[in-house]
Amino acid sequence: MASTDGDRRPKYQRIADTLREAIQAGEYVPGDRLPGENDLMNAHRVARMTARQALGVLQSEGIAESRKGAGVFVRAFRPLRRRGIQRLSQQQWGSGRSIWSADTENRDLVVDQVQVTEEAAPEHIGAVLDLEEEGTVCVRRRRFVLDGKPVLLATSYLPMGIVAGSAITEENTGPGGTYARLADLGFKPVHFREEIRSRMPSKDEARQLGITAGTPVILICRTAFADEGRPVEINEMTLDAASYILEYDFDA
Amino acid sequence: MASTDGDRRPKYQRIADTLREAIQAGEYVPGDRLPGENDLMNAHRVARMTARQALGVLQSEGIAESRKGAGVFVRAFRPLRRRGIQRLSQQQWGSGRSIWSADTENRDLVVDQVQVTEEAAPEHIGAVLDLEEEGTVCVRRRRFVLDGKPVLLATSYLPMGIVAGSAITEENTGPGGTYARLADLGFKPVHFREEIRSRMPSKDEARQLGITAGTPVILICRTAFADEGRPVEINEMTLDAASYILEYDFDA
DNA sequence: GAGTGGTCTAGACCACTAT
DNA sequence: TAGTGGTCTAGACCACTCA
């Protein structure tokens, strides 16, 4: 009998390992309900907090997610593919298409919330955009929803000195979107820089994206440059990491 | 007196919020020790598990990290900048420099472990690389260390049919690295694709990278293509997300 | 050796979900 | 309404760190 085993790892880790292996072996598939706290207490003769800790391990690994009052379930991973470079090529926004449509791959990514305001530039924004004195910025905040689930928050900053009076200050920027309007204004973006990092979400980000424990966010900060290296837009994006794969294609 | 407040948020959340605000207000700076479990029990009149939960919130957010027997400390974030496109331009590896050296920005990023083997190709690798029948791959596994801390695991797969007998199968690939050797062999990489995602680390990844709770990993899968779109290398990288900012610069 | 975080027990009450 | 996860208490012992 191996019941009095000499394993020196914590009980909750052993329980978590058992469940993880069962998931990886296909005994539970995405969407399945895992044994609950009560099940684990009985099966492994442990206290509630210990069973709870075991389930917490899987949640913090992003393998499982709990639904209050219902149970703990195996998570699915079905991401979007976001092509970082092709999506910003001339053909895309030069020909009347909104750049975001390239994201969807026939899935239903739509704008959920839009808010356009004029604000004083945050310090880190003003330091990059060349603002005239009294420089305010046009701030476009949008949330994107995929299949009913929020997956992307985007906040775009543009110098008011450039975009005042244009459709960029409207909720609907018209065919080709913001970049086509910038081109109309003589500030056609010709170069982009995207900076990417990842971390755990703040409470506010988790709320807005409906993120469960164990899921990081990806942050993309894109700067668009017009001729002569003039920065004309900064777009700060927050992505649910479980919903995205980013792709960059380029030549040597 | 506000001691019997009507706040309906969990105690541990309120305690965590208090600490988080103190950190953001600069009362604690990176490296500082936060109040411990005992301190919080006394200060907020709660049980150990509740104080513990509060500290757990900050750790899972990546704001703090615990050191056994020592305390809970505010974390620092001092990332490397990895330039995804410039680093692979001709000048870099065409002129005798190892591409990784562009990563460092005067910081000390060095290879810590190298392992070169010949193996049967994993299924997802063989499906992308054009392997001859009996196709094995040269597998180069490396770990990179920054200031004594591991930050990057890289596993590179190359078709044995191409690289057999070359310096690519040695630990030291010579000036210009793997890509210069591929060029010598007539398979100069001319196009790259990098796919990026992020998730929480597996236990093994966390161990190899020395990752603490609350830190995701970034996964980069790079495919290098020679002429006629022939894939000649797949490099799967696992990055400590707290150590990296990725950058992609490109024209419209 | 004093203090710290890590694990664990055995209870309890609550809000929520599903039926 | 029965079952679920979420929160919380009041203890306990351990391994570890640091002075």
Automatic annotation (TrEMBL), chains A, B:
InterPro entries: Bact_HTH_transcr_reg, Chorismate_lyase_/UTRA_dom_sf, Tscrpt_reg_HTH_GntR, UTRA, WH-like_DNA-bd_sf, WH_DNA-bd_sf. Keywords: DNA-binding, Transcription, Transcription regulation. Gene3D superfamilies: Chorismate lyase-like (3.40.1410.10), Winged helix-like DNA-binding domain superfamily/Winged helix DNA-binding domain (1.10.10.10). Residues 9-77 form the HTH gntR-type domain. This is GntR family transcriptional regulator. It comes from Streptomyces evansiae. The lineage of its organism: Bacteria, Bacillati, Actinomycetota, Actinomycetes, Kitasatosporales.
